[in-house]
Amino acid sequence: MRAVGILGGMGPAAGADFVRLFVQACTRHLQGQGLPVHDQAYPEHWLVQLPMPDRTQALRSDPQSPAGPAAHLLQGAGRLAALGVRSVALACNTAHAWHGQIQALFPQLRVLHIAQQTALYLKAGGARQALVLATDGTYDSGLYDAALADCGIAALRPGPAGRARLMQGIYEGVKQGDMPLAVQCFGEALAPLLQRHGAVPVIMGCTEIPLALPQASQARGAELVDPAWILACALAQDAYAH
């Protein structure tokens, strides 16, 4: 087994939840291989939670500001590298705007890419279109547009009103601990998209969204895709790779 790392703090609840997803992914791997499941069967894994400056604000002002997330992300990756991890997952979609910079500075690490992993997952399932629910920063960076296009999948986005509801649910809801507000906002953002586009996969492209959207009545019956789960499974595969 290989030591792996999780770079979190974006926000802390999403980072902590990613550890849960990773452990679940490890359990599924062990069961799928017919291996016994016990404490010693799980790989060494490290979580670094740093108080990260807001990613969306940074992308809209100065992505390389010394006070911005870039320096903090590189610091966190450096700590994981010093611990001897081989692969790293970023527990934040928007933070992948700095993915290339992290990978270039730490070539000894395999920095997994959440959008690329998600696009490959959807391609394997035969998807041709997918709704992307995300932060303004993720939309502005084109993170999912590029990854999905590489796999022949069209990215569908909400309009300004829907994006505003998503941002409200993320920042005033999940990040401030108001989960009922988050459920309401995410559900109201999703409903008109499903009416317009029909039954297409829904990418929950912010690690806060899966913490609330599945509880929304508007999401019942929808094909919700959790990139954090897909990324956790990829990290588990790396951890057990020979």
TrEMBL record:
The keyword Lipid biosynthesis does not apply. It comes from the Bacteria. InterPro entries: Asp/Glu/hydantoin_racemase (IPR015942), Asp/Glu_race (IPR001920), Asp_race (IPR004380). Keywords: Isomerase. It holds the Pfam family Asp_Glu_race. One of its GO terms (molecular function) is amino-acid racemase activity. Gene3D superfamilies: 3.40.50.1860. This is Aspartate racemase. The lineage of its organism: Bacteria, Pseudomonadati, Pseudomonadota, Betaproteobacteria, Burkholderiales.
